[in-house]
Design goal:
The chain is built from 24 helices and six strands. The chain starts with a helix and ends with a helix. Strand 5 and strand 6 form a beta hairpin. The strands form two sheets. Strands 3-4-6-5 form a four-stranded mixed β-sheet. Strands 1-2 form a two-stranded parallel ribbon. It is mainly alpha-helical and 554 residues long. It is globular, with a radius of gyration of 30 Å.
């Protein structure tokens, strides 16, 4: 395919990808976005003081994505909720373009890079939100692009780019700093295995041992017959060593299923990893990029958060499709897979089964390895069909059909969001917060002395409205791993699941008010409890005042 044709395909693909990616961005904000805005505001006004100002408990906070928080706050401060939505959509577009460019670098096929990008963006649509993870997705794709470019050209600017990415991740989302190195491991593992095999270490060790034995026997004056016996063994080992080398060369030239890719530049990548690792120090967070993930895994909060739960294959269509496609090609066709791609897909699959949120990485990064597998399959069995279809797609009729189909798909995805609001009143206590702020103005509520219990899922919205909270979606903040002897998250789970008597916990925390879902288990108990006075209720949320002994007597 000539360069002019490729350019036309790329232009058409990028236009379609931008439109498709833009409509995937959700209009309604997630709960994490609310605390992100407020934390960014707090940092701008007070700096990184390591104090949490939003929960009424006395807690320390490490600001693990402080740079992203500040950036989002600045966008919100200048353009409001509309700016948050548009910036999220633009980041999604950037991600889509980078996936296309990286795929093109990896598999050299314009058509399949285009199709892969649309598929990847669709499968990760639930992960596209105004959260730090969207920015780190962009960084991870850039990481793969820079690695592939460096291995192909050995130019130093890509190493500098990788170091810069590592530094940005440490400041934008320190909790996933480790992922930067996880994505490099398949390259390292393939190189090291080839290196170990090429050194022929076992045979060389045996040969050296036998030669040393012969020398010692000669010095000790052993009989010639015994020396010759050892000499015969040495010759057999040397012959076996030569056969091993010949067999390895033959297998490398004509592999059965796993293909080895010799890329000597990987050794420089391994050496430069020391530089990448040191980038975690270029942050005001101290050792947070290195320790955050270990604290998180050591704690129990991940066991209670859905996105950290192990993935169950039943009902997960996307994961089933990935596994069936990969194993189907490997088992039922003559297609070869590189050892690096096998490690990449296998490693990310294991991560996905350990935590369902990692499915995004499997699709996003593992997708490059899967696409290369598909391209090799197509090139092997139908090399001309792809080029013919590509030429048809960039014809006038093909362009019109492609754009119409893309617009129809995009509109079908976007039409469900047209009437969406930036803040869902069914998910967040918008009217209840209005009521509380009005009561504060009247002097009926004192936020300085109030200790209010609330649910995890909307605590971020309450603090966004400057209402002190019991808990919000920063789960790590409320665990003993990040705040010594803090059991707020654990106690919240017990209260919300009615696995403990709520009144005992409320006494321990000296709770004065309770906000809960109107249809929650807790509300079913509080509505019958004479110790709780209903102050406000709407279709979705209820506010109670927990009566003191004096109030009860009165």
């Amino acid at each position: 395919m000539d360069s002019k044709t490729k350019m036309k395909v790329n232009v058409l693909a990028i236009i379609c990808i931008i439109v498709f990616s833009f409509v995937l961005a959700p209009k309604t904000l997630q709960n994490d976005t609310f605390y992100t805005i407020k934390i960014g505001e707090h940092i701008v006004e007070n700096g990184l003081d390591r104090e949490d100002p939003f929960a009424w408990s006395d807690l320390k906070y490490t600001y693990p994505h402080w740079l992203y928080d500040v950036a989002v706050y600045e966008v919100y401060n200048m353009t409001g909720m509309t700016g948050i939505y548009i910036s999220t959509a633009l980041l999604a577009c950037i991600l889509g373009i980078l996936v296309f460019v990286t795929s093109l670098k990896v598999n050299k096929n314009n058509l399949f890079s285009f199709i892969l990008t649309l598929a990847v963006m669709y499968f990760i649509k639930d992960f596209i939100a105004a959260r730090a993870q969207l920015v780190t997705f962009i960084f991870f794709v850039l990481e793969i692009l820079f690695v592939e470019c460096f291995l192909a050209s050995k130019k130093k600017r890509y190493i500098i780019g990788l170091a810069f990415i590592a530094c940005l991740i440490a400041n934008m989302h320190s909790a996933v700093f480790y992922v930067f190195f996880v994505l490099l491991l398949p390259y390292f593992a393939e190189y090291l295995l080839i290196f170990i095999r090429d050194t022929n270490f076992i045979y060389k060790l045996r040969i050296k041992s036998l030669k040393s034995k012969i020398e010692k026997m000669a010095k000790k004056g052993k009989s010639q017959e015994k020396i010759e016996e050892v000499q015969i063994k040495l010759e057999k080992v040397e012959e076996a060593s030569l056969k091993f080398i010949e067999n390895q060369k033959r297998r490398e030239e004509k592999p059965y299923k796993i293909r080895l890719e010799r890329r000597d530049a990987v050794k420089w990548l391994i050496i430069c990893t020391i530089i990448f690792f040191a980038m975690g120090l270029l942050t005001p967070l101290g050792d947070e990029p290195y320790t955050h993930i270990f604290k998180l895994l050591h704690g129990k909060t991940t066991n209670s958060i859905s996105e950290h739960q192990p993935l169950i294959l039943k009902g997960h269509t996307g994961m089933i499709m990935v596994l069936v496609m990969t194993f189907g090609i490997l088992v039922f066709t003559d297609t070869k897979i590189s050892l690096k791609d096998l490690f990449m897909i296998g490693g990310l699959t294991i991560l996905t089964f350990s935590a369902r949120r990692q499915f995004s990485l499997l699709v996003l990064i593992g997708g490059f390895s899967i696409s290369r597998l598909i391209c090799e399959l197509v090139d092997k069995y139908d090399n001309t069909g792809t080029e013919e279809f590509t030429r048809l797609m960039i014809s006038w009729k093909g362009k019109i059909i492609t754009i119409i189909l893309l617009v129809l798909c995009s509109f079908n995805l976007y039409k469900t969001k047209i009437k969406d609001e930036y803040i869902s009143k069914t998910s967040y206590p918008v009217e209840l917060a209005d009521f509380m702020l009005e009561e504060k103005e009247k002097g009926n509520l004192n936020f300085d002395t109030m200790k209010m219990y609330n649910d995890y899922n909307y605590g971020s919205y309450l603090l966004f409205r400057d209402i002190p909270v019991f808990i919000d979606s920063r789960a790590d903040l409320y665990s003993p791993e990040f705040n010594e002897e803090c059991k707020i998250f654990e106690d919240y789970m017990d209260i919300s699941n009615i696995s403990t008597y709520y009144e005992d916990k409320f006494k321990d925390y000296e709770i004065t008010h309770v906000v809960t879902y109107s249809n929650s288990k807790l509300n079913m108990l509080l509505v019958r409890d004479e110790n709780y006075k209903e102050l406000y209720k709407d279709k979705y949320f209820t506010l109670y005042e927990r009566l003191s002994d004096n109030d009860k007597n009165a």
